[in-house]
Amino acid sequence: MGSRLFRLFLVVLTVGLVGVGAVSGLAEAVAAGDGGARVLDTDPNLAGWWQFDEVSGIAAADSSGYGRDGVLKGGLSFDKGSVAGRAGGALLLDGKDDLVEITGYKGVGGSAARTIAAWIKTKSSSGEIVSWGTDDFGQMWTMTFIRRYMGVTPNGGYFYMKDAISDEQWHHVAAVVAEAEWPNLHDDVTLYKDGVIAEIHDIGLLDLWPIVTGSDLDVRIGMGLRGAIDDIRIYDRALTKEEVLALTSEKYISN
Ligand SMILES: [Ca+2]
User: Fold this and answer.
1) Which residues contact 46 (CB under 8 A, 6 or more apart)?
2) Which residue among 8, 20, 61, 100 is buried most deeply as judged by most CB within 10 Å?
3) Which residues hold their Cβ within 5 A of ligand 1, which is an ion?
4) pLDDT along the chain (255 residues), means of 10
5) What is the pTM of this model?
6) Rounded to the nearest whole angstrom, what is the distance from the C-alpha of residue 112 to the centroid of ligand 1?
């Protein structure tokens, strides 16, 4: 009787130890960030990724694997525009004619889902993170300061966050367009500030056009922006809120 109880006790103890081992292994994997963040670098839907870690020249390499390298314009070069970034180097733009053009890349077109994410550091509150499309209603896709706050517009309606980010500190900003037949700012777009969903200050509904992005213009980064930009990514899918948060994790960006 006593010995059967003892064997039962051993079984319970063994099962208990295996259980604890599995849980702590999972915790380590999550803590290391291997489950979420790093796969975002090799995601096939990462359509463009400019890390701005160069220190000379006017070529900005695309790390997405799709070869969408950028060209620095307006007299901008890494020799004079390279500054300490959020992860490695960043690019400092003058807010006048500086910009990065991704020659031949038209961005995410039509009504396709998409995510734009970038780190920026600025005192200013005007200028673009990125834009592309066709200069007509509903056919542009621009992530930009709108009335001094970060937001997006398809050129027909606008949508921007409540909190200011122009405090000369690094902030992560992201805009996500969900899968939808006729996506619009009101129903299908989410803005993020520093990894969490941003409170929305205002949305222009009077002239709200669906997002049907054209393909006339090449992708432009930093037009009119006076400040530093780092680690800008374009995904041709909607990232989840966990994935956007992962893009801001210390462990992730230190690599
Ligand atoms: Ca960088």
Assistant:
1) 40, 64, 65, 233, 234, 235
2) 100
3) 51-53, 85, 87-88, 230
4) 46 41 38 58 97 98 98 97 96 98 98 98 97 98 97 95 97 98 96 97 83 98 98 98 92 50
5) 0.84
6) 27
